[in-house]
Structures are given as C-alpha cells and as structure tokens.
From TrEMBL:
Coiled coil ranges: none
UniProt xrefs under InterPro entries: SpoVT-AbrB_dom, SpoVT-AbrB_sf
Keywords: DNA-binding
Stored PROSITE patterns: SPOVT_ABRB
Originating species: Ferranicluibacter rubi
Name the record gives this protein: AbrB/MazE/SpoVT family DNA-binding domain-containing protein
Keyword match DNA-binding: yes
GO-annotated molecular function: DNA binding
Gene3D superfamilies: 2.10.260.10
Domain SpoVT-AbrB: 1-47
Length: 85
C-alpha cells in the first residue's frame, strides 16, 4: 500500500512507484470513478488509435467470404441449436 498526503490546496502527488506501476507518464490522463463508502477507482486513459490500425486484426484462415444471408443463417442455426461445430 502506498500512502499519499493531501496538500493545503487539496491536491495529491502520486509517487514515482505508483506512476510506474500504472504506466502513467507526463501528459497522460486518468479517470476517477467515485464509488460508495468513500472509495474511488482510478483508470488510466489509453492512447487513441486510428481506426485503420484495427484493419486485419481478425484473420480468416480459410480465405472464404460470406454473404450477409449466410451469416444470418448461421446465427439463426446457432440460436436454434442446429449449428455445425
């Protein structure tokens, strides 16, 4: 556990070990969720990436493409418990 002291201005300074543990650096942002019982949850805001960086992240090993109709049929069959494994 790391203990921090509140300044007269109502601020706290996170110690180096806390910053390193959370991967926080200069200019980074964090969100704090206020929770019941005088608790809070701190979350580091990740870097945003361009949408193009996600292209190709799900590989299709068969190389086969499927129509919307085929996809809908597979969904319906899965829901009905008739899907092939």
């Amino acid at each position: 556990m790391v203990r921090l002291k509140v300044s007269a201005e109502g601020q706290i300074t996170l110690k180096k070990e806390v910053l390193e543990h959370l991967g926080i650096g200069p200019g980074d942002e964090v969100d704090i969720d206020l929770m019941p019982s005088r608790r809070a949850s701190l979350r580091v805001i990740g870097e945003t990436r361009p949408i193009e960086s996600l292209f190709g992240m799900v590989k299709n090993p068969t190389g086969r493409t499927y129509t919307v109709e085929e996809i809908n049929e597979a969904i319906a069959a899965g829901y009905a418990g008739e899907a092939d494994d």
